[in-house]
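SEVERITY: medium
COMPONENT: batch folding queue
REPORTER: lab tech (J.R.)

DESCRIPTION
The queue accepted two submissions in a row. Attaching both inputs and their returned structure tokens so the on-call engineer can compare them side by side.

ATTACHMENT 1
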Amino acid sequence: MNTVLGCLGDRLARFLAREVHVHSAVPAVRPERLLATLRPGDVLLVEGNSRVSTAIKYLTQSTWSHAALYVGSAVADAGKNPEHCFVEADTVEGVRSVGISAFAGLHSRICRPVGLTAEDCQKLTAFAIARIGNRYDLRNVVDLARYLLPTPPVPLRFRRKMLAVGSGDPTRAICSTLIAQAFQSIRYPILPITAVQNEDRPDCPACVNEILSVRHHSLFAPRDFDVSPYFEVIKPTIEAGFDFHALKWGAQTAPIAGLHR
């Protein structure tokens, strides 16, 4: 029975991983410019082009369907492929390292944690690298089948929970859960649950404390790094020294496709 489920899950995972056409009006950043901007600990969000990406973008109401952790030379330092500089979770291959070529031509965004020390960064990247080779249990076909419908009829308030619903451990099905675990291992916040508690001080009756609780890692989605108040959005074009005076404009405004005089 396990063999049959494993074969079914493998076929389903490969079907969901197949690329589909995704139209994006935003040009992709050149790989060499991305590499020049990235720092170890950065989270790279990607607008994926697979079947499962379509479902994730719908469920999370976001452009971003995939996330990878930039670890720089730490992959090579760990004795693995020296051309790889990212760690990501893939439904078919599990946790793996990849190079910048894996994201060539895809719309992306860099989200940078603020205030990490060198020691924090080393612990963060080591956590992710140590999990390379972990695989998603493809026998849990229910975890995969939920993505067969690109726009499943799920009420908005239940969509985040749907990312974590399934017959087994779903935490390797979504790339962002691996990265969430890595940041939680150094107690760095992403989108913690916040509770307000009165300080009960006579000299400051309006003073309150914010108590943070850790959100379970299986409930994180790629967009959470984008909307988190604790991550800075880094734009490679601006980081490279953008000067709008140097732009060369055409003589006429580009026509709108489909409209004729």
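ATTACHMENT 2
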Amino acid sequence: MLTHGKIWTAIDALARRYGLSPSGLAKRAGLDATAFNPSKRVTTEGRPRWPTTESVAKVLSATGATLDEFVDLLDKGPSLRKVPQPIPLIGLTQAGAGGFFDDGGFPVGGGWDQIRFPRVDDENAYALEVTGDSMQPLYRDGDILIVSPNSAARKGDRVVLRTTDGEVMAKILVRRTAKTVELASFNPDHPNLVFPVERIDWMARIVWASQ
């Protein structure tokens, strides 16, 4: 069955096959550079947003891929994710530095280590290692967070986000509107934070943690 997750996974797999990030694929196809960003894959209300047939056609034309090739990625993508795969790993405190993410929040560059992790449904997933005690009591020094940039973040989800000034943080999504994002700290003694959406570069859901 064709699902929202499968078609976005196939687009991401096609980008990697041709040596591109999702943003780079969008640019080559003549689309807005943010067209394939994770934040564009769901509405502000959390409903899935599907790529248009025109966008898919432009992607195939830009890469030279055939429709059969794209359908093959739709069919084989989930089965390829059942085996342990290498996932990029970096320390959470390092993640705010430049060169580790593209403008869509996908891992790029050569500064990542790797771990193998079998239970992930996002081929763009990556891992962040917690350092220090700022996220106690939920996460402690040395814990590994698996982050899925292609998973839609909804109210109550644990997320990682980067602000436009380069700060990377892990929080709980409280509320998201067309204008603001409200986040709660893992430490209940800290007040909630409210950011205007233009201050957030990207936000991705934490799907697993080693605790």
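NOTES FROM REPORTER
The chain has a mean pLDDT of 85.
No errors were logged for either attachment.
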